[in-house]
Amino acid sequence: MSVDRRSLLKLAGATALSGAMMGSAKAQSSIDPASSSKGGADHTIRIGAGLVELAPDRIISTTTYNGQFPGPLLRFKEGQRTIVDIHNDTDTPEQLHWHGQTVPVDVDGASEEGTPFIPAHGMRRIAFTPGPAGLRFYHTHLTPGADLSSGQYGGQVGTVYVEPKHEPGRYDREVFLMLKEFQPALSRGGDMDMDFLAPAARIKALEEAGESAMRASLAMGMPHGFEVGYSLFSINGRLLGHGEPIRVKPGERVLFHVVNGSATEIRSLALPEHRFEVVALDGNPVPTPTQVPVLWLGTAERVSAIVEMNHPGVWVMGDLADDDRTRGMGVVIEYAGRTGKPAWSKPAPFHWDYTHFGQSDAITTAPDETIVMTFTKNNAALNGFNQWTINDVAFTMEKMEPMFHLREGRRYRLRMRNASDDSSCASSSAQLRADPHRGQRHGRHYEGCRDAGRLSGNRSRFRRRQSGPDLVPLPPAIAHGLRLHGAVRLRLSQPAHRRWGQ
Ligand SMILES: [Cu+2]
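Above: query sequence and copper (II) ion SMILES. Below: predicted holo structure tokens.
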């Protein structure tokens, strides 16, 4: 073996360095055994280019976490401090956002909140106490705008599970599913919005407002604004039929943790002849676990649901949309000893209704104030892209002007009205930057309340204290009420919408 001088120096340097690090770790542990992990991180994430093999002849090159898609499943323990090293091997400064967790601003991963960037070809070590327990996820927080090769259009999405201190464990095993599309492209018009909420949730006036604005724009000779469409669809990074089947046994109770990792899409998921018992939404246990034949997930939404495997066979669990499912959005469920072509059948029409998972006899406390937010779309107004507004104001990341001033300790009800012809997902990121009393942040601290299409009356049945969804899909022409307290920055979780106004 021949070693040149430079390598030798490198080797010597590395040895000296590791010696020094070991020395310091020893010194640390002799003082404080609990901090012996200080030398190394509990988790390491590397952001860099990688290949995703969706199928043998469908290999795409994109940005990934640790060279894989989805990124590694990170299991944290509620309340147990963790250290994560994030290396950025790309040429662009990055933000890694811990979606659904209440973590300090310098860790959260949103530059608009004040999190420092992970420099290009640099790294950040962060330490935080994970929580709340349940299904969370992490993703890039770069805003891609019209650049469909960047941000969450690529492969930077991974699942987080924060293990609760006390796990009820009413299931035999867990299966994590990440739903994600690839190969985005801009098109004019896009697909029709899906009609998945109960018709009672629609409001005629809002519907007409959205439609007439669209008609007026087209009459002025405007084209349809750009929409993003996809050509490849995957669950856990594999097209339907190209991944390992999920192998189950009769009688088994499987807890599916489903993450909609899409940048823009609303998804459905059904397993023929089986029902999902929804036990948590966005990782937070629901007051009333309820069986449904289909799951609907807004962009970035999570559902945890138990399926009792009681119909032996080989099945396709997949999206109701035939186009998306046949192009990959599905996974095969295979019972032990069963073979054959995976079967698919469409379930009977079903409308998703969040109130089913709520507490029917809940008494809601009146808010101190109600804030009304009306979302509108200005078709093709920004160089052919749609502009989105809240109360006729387009948000800009540059100015960051607050539209509402909230007072600490007061209770607010947010009444969100979608007057556009497209779905929006509102996600509140509640960070109490200064809580002098306890120095702690109140995360998403709200009780959701829907009032199924009623603009007034507040006859809400849906109530969750500190365990509400942190993300609420708003199909066109519905009104949505949400109560919360804490200081709140509201953002729309579709990056396309956020980039262009909301
Ligand atoms: Cu997010």
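The helical segments are 5-31, 105-108, 204-219, 322-326, 495-499.
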